[in-house]
């Protein structure tokens, strides 16, 4: 049976009629007890399970997913990866994630199609340019690659941009090491690598309650029975408040839908990731040729994973404002995911007031880029009981001490 992916194994299986491949991961049935349980089979949960096994040698782990692996936000996002944050704490964390991404295909022996084609933010007015200058300076001070360009520099790198009187292009900020990756591949790669190290990947299993004794978690009640463990981690973006509440833990999070769209596939025409804060639009071109387009969060709280026409029109208007030539493209499909937004727009990673219960949540619209670091730090907290230095500022305690990290006002983050 072929487990290792290489040019040689592709050739061998090609000659053998593709009959020797093993399933990427073993679909497990739940056992009564584990050393650790991770709730949520998105990128963060899978990465947590993988690093528990790889970094800490804890392999008797259950990864519990109520649907299918990668069926949550990880499989719904627009796949932008960057580390252009403002504050040193967030910059260091997201840069660590980007560095892990740079080596992830080799580490997991799975092609995640990471493409560092650059990530541009456009400045359409003087105020916008001031924000970009501030971001570029902060990024450089944090040791992160940043290039500030004038209008000619932007147009030289991104052909086809409009000459709009409403949204003139005054310049742009590029992070050359930013880019995108195939989202399913990130989930499948981590699932495969975790399973190979002994993690039980349990799909179609919903956590419905918690076993709690003496202020300590003792396990979870699921749709497939009781599973015991003294150490439980949660990474259920979109449903963090709902699941944590079952453990009696209240989180400072509000949930909104975020929508995205893809066009029909066309020949290569956009060789970067582009964000235009003033038009409220961002887009990139996938390796299949589709334009992947997104806009802002819906303005009302919701758990409905569906799109709506007003946002689609708004995003389309922004795209056409930037690239009039795209106005004749057809949309192929539209969807939404639920994003958990923390009041200071910075994630929460670490322990809760319930002993043995750890959370990784509050990624808002931008947690895909954080998956390797989010999993690394949650695994560290679960294995050692202490915050990883990169995540110590992201604890729940900051809502008691007031040490908030307001990235939304600092870098105007989106995705
Ligand atoms: C349209 C859109 C575009 C985005 N674009 C970007 C982007 O370009 N770049 C970026 O960095 N981020 C982006 N994001 C955000 C990013 O997708 C998320 O932050 C990230 O995927 C969160 O990963 P996760 O593993 O925490 O959650 P998920 O992938 O959502 O996984 C959580 C899992 O938990 C499971 N679950 C829930 N409740 C239970 C339960 N009771 N029991 C068991 N399992 C449960 C769910 O079924 C789900 O599979 C975008 C999000 C959306 C919706």
TrEMBL record:
This enzyme's EC code(s)? 1.5.3.24
What is catalysed by this protein? sarcosine + O2 + H2O = formaldehyde + glycine + H2O2; sarcosine + (6S)-5,6,7,8-tetrahydrofolate + O2 = (6R)-5,10-methylene-5,6,7,8-tetrahydrofolate + glycine + H2O2
Q: Where in the cell is it found?
A: Cytoplasm
Q: Which cofactor does it need?
A: FMN; FAD
Domain Rhodanese positions: 37-80
Gene Ontology terms for molecular function: nucleotide binding; sarcosine oxidase activity
One of its GO biological process terms is:
tetrahydrofolate metabolic process
What is this protein's record name? Answer: Sarcosine oxidase subunit beta
